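Before the break, one more example. Copy the sequence into your notebook; we will annotate it together after we see the structure.
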Amino acid sequence: MNTFIVRCGEVALKGMNKPYFERVLLERIRRALKKKYSGIDAKRLEGLIFIRMPDEYSVEDIISDISKVFGVASVSHAVEVEHAFDTGSDMKAIGDAAVEYMLNLIETRGIKTFKVETKRADKNFPIESPKISKQIGGDVLKGCKVLSVDVHDPDCRLFINIRHDKTYIFADKIAGFGGLPLGTNGRGLILLSGGIDSPVAAWMMAKRGMLIEAVHFHSYPYTSERAKEKVLDLTRILAGYCGRIRVHTINLLEIQQAININCPADEMTIISRRFMMKLAESVAKQIGCVMLITGENLGQVASQTAEGIVVTDNAVEMPVMRPLIALDKVDIMEIARTIGTFETSIMPFEDCCTVFLPKHPVTKPKIERILESEAKLDVAGLIESALAGMEIETIYPE
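Here is what the structure looks like once it is written out:
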C-alpha cells in the first residue's frame, strides 16, 4: 500500500469550526479519488489526513489528483514504519527504513547531500526530536556512503514524523492549491463567456469553497454552435476542480436587436450587460445561488470602467463578486495556464459581446441616461422571452 499525508493549510486555522472543514475536505478527497481508484482508506488524525492506496496505482497521478482538491495545502508520499513500542527496536526500524528510502532517492534523483528534520507529534516517544534527527542522520551516513550532511542547502530534506503507532518518512511536500473545501461557502453563479477571464474567476471563487453554477449568453445564429461548444469545453475543465456545473445557456439576440433599434448606439454594450445581469439574477434565484460572479477586471474594456461597473451593478439586487477586479492581465493569463483553460479560451470563436458592437462605446455612462434608454424597451417581456428559451446542460468531472 502507498501512504499519502495531506496537510490542510487554511482549514487548520478555523478554530471551533476546524473539525467541520476537515470532514468536508476529507469527503472531497474521497470523491475525487473514487472516480478513478478503488481500495481507498482515508482518515483524519490530529490535523492531517492520511490516505492509503493500493500500490498498483501511479503515485504521481494520485498526488496530482489530491493536490487539485481545494483545501489541500500539500501532499507527501510517505513510507510507514509500524511501532513495536520498544524504543530501541523502533529507532532501528526507523533507521533501516530511512536508509532504504534514501538509497532509492540516490538512484532516482542522484542526490548528494541531505538533512534530517524530525517532528515528534507523539510526545510520549522518549527521545527528543534533535536526538532522533542526529541518530537517523548517522544511520543514513553509514548506509549511504555517497551522502554527506548539509544543514543549510541540502539536496534533500528527510522528514521524520513520529506519531503514536507509526512513524512516517518522506522527502517531498507537493503544493496543492490551498483555499477552502468546496461546499463550505455557498453557491454562486458565474457569467461564463468563452474568454480567458471568467473561467479563472469561477476557479478562484471555487477555491474559496463556493459551489459553482454557470450562465452563458450567445447570439445564435450570429454566434456559432462551435462558440457554445467552446464554453462547454471550458466548463469540462473547470468541473475537474469545481465538481458538477450546470450551464444555463440563454440567447441574447432578441434583446440586442431591441437595444439596437431603440437605444443610442454607444449604449449597446452597457445596456446589454445590464440585461445579462438581470437574467443571471433570475437564474441565480431559481437555483439557490447567493451571489453572481463575473470575470470583470477594472479598466480592461469599455464596460469595465468604474462608472460602467456602477451602472451594471445597479441592474441587480444580488451581490456581485469580481475576484479578478485588480489583477493584471498577465497574472490572469498565468492562472489560466496553470489550471488548463488558457489554450481553450484563446480559440478564435466569437461571443455575444461582438454582436452589434459600437465603434465608440460609452466608457463613463450615467445611470440616469441609461435608465431613460431602457424605458424605451419592454424589459420584463424581453427577459421573460429570453428565459423561456433557456437551455440547461449539466457537466460532470471526467
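The chain has a mean pLDDT of 92. The CA atoms of residues 249 and 350 lie 15 Å apart. Try to locate both features in your own notes.
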